[in-house]
Amino acid sequence: MKIRIIAGAVMAVLAIAGLAIISAYVGTADARALDAQEPREVYLVTAPIPEGTPVDELGESIALHTVPAAVVPDGALSSLGGQSGKVAGVDLQPGEQLLESRLVDPEVLEAPGTVPVPEGLQEVTIQLDAPRVVGGQLTAGDTVGFYVSFEGDEGRESKTAKDLHKILVTSVQGAPSTAAPAEGTETSGNAAPAVPEGSMLVTLAVNADTAEKIVFASEFGRIWLSLEPEDAEENDNGATRGDFE
C-alpha cells in the first residue's frame, strides 16, 4: 500500500515538473518568435479618446505595449516627446495604435474662417451692413475699434463715441459682394473691385462687461467698426455731439 502511495506521489511530481518544463519551453518559444519579429514598444489606445482631447490629458487612455514590428505602421508613437500642446485630431478607439498623424495643433480643428477665443473671453455677434464693417473687408483675426451713435431726444444731443479698442474678430459670416457682370459685358483688368452689399454677422471676443456694452449699443444705437491693428494709436477725444458747425 505504501509503495503505491509513494509511486503516485512520484508520478505527480514528475507530471508537475513536466508541465513546468513545457510551459517554460512554450514561453521561451514565444519569446524567440517575438524576438524574430523585431518587437517594438508602441502606445495603444486603451479607452475611447474624443476628438480635441489634449495630449497632456491622455493619461490612462493609452499604454505602452510590445508588438511585432510587422504590424507597426509608420508614425506609431512610443513616446509623447515633442507632442505637448497638440490634441487628438479624430476620435480614437481602444485597440488602435497611437499615430503621430492623429495628433494635431488645436487650430486645425477650428472651423474655417475662425480664430480661437482667448481664454477667459466670450463671444458676441452683431449684424451690420457692409459699409459699417470696413466695407465688408473684415476677416477673422482682425482687431477693430467700436463706435456707437445714439440719437438725441428730450433735449439731449445726438452723439457718437468710441471707448472700445482693438476687439478681436473671431468670425465673419455673410461676406457680401455684388452680382457677377452680365454675360457679354466686357471688364477691364483695371476695373474697381465690386462694392459689397447687404448685411454681415461679425463675432467678437470680449469680456462680460464689454459684451454688455455691445449688446446695449446693438439694441439702442447704431454701430460702426474701424479696422484697428495692434499698433494703432488709441486717441480718445470724448464723444462727438450735435452737428459739426
Major sheet summary line = 6 strands, antiparallel
The termini sit apart by 131 Å
Structural class determined from secondary elements? alpha+beta
| Number of strand segments | 10
Give the amount of beta strand, in percent.
Answer: 25-35%
Computed Rg? 34 Å
The mean pLDDT is 79
How much helix is in the residues? 10-25%
Low-confidence stretches: none
Order of helices and strands: HEEEEEEEEHEE
> How many domains?
2
Count of separate DSSP helical elements: 2
- Envelope shape: elongated
Structure overview:
The model has no long low-confidence stretch (mean pLDDT 79). The protein has 2 domains: 40-109, Type Iii Antifreeze Protein Isoform Hplc 12 (Alpha-Beta Complex), CATH 3.90.1210; 122-179 and 194-241. The protein starts with a helix and ends with a strand. The chain contains 2 helices and 10 strands; from the N terminus they run H-E-E-E-E-E-E-E-E-H-E-E. The chain has helices spanning 2-36, 208-220, and strands spanning 40-45, 62-67, 87-88, 103-104, 122-129, 143-150, 159-173, 199-206, 222-227, 240-241. Helix content is 20%, strand content 26%. It has 245 residues and is α+β, with helices and mostly antiparallel strands. Strands 5, 6, 7, 8, 9 and 10 form a 6-stranded antiparallel sheet that branches. The protein has a two-stranded antiparallel sheet with strand order 1-2. It has a two-stranded antiparallel sheet with strand order 3-4.
Layout of secondary structure:
Layout: H1 2-36, E1 40-45, E2 62-67, E3 87-88, E4 103-104, E5 122-129, E6 143-150, E7 159-173, E8 199-206, H2 208-220, E9 222-227, E10 240-241
Antiparallel strand pairs: 1-2, 3-4, 5-8, 6-7, 6-9, 7-8, 7-10
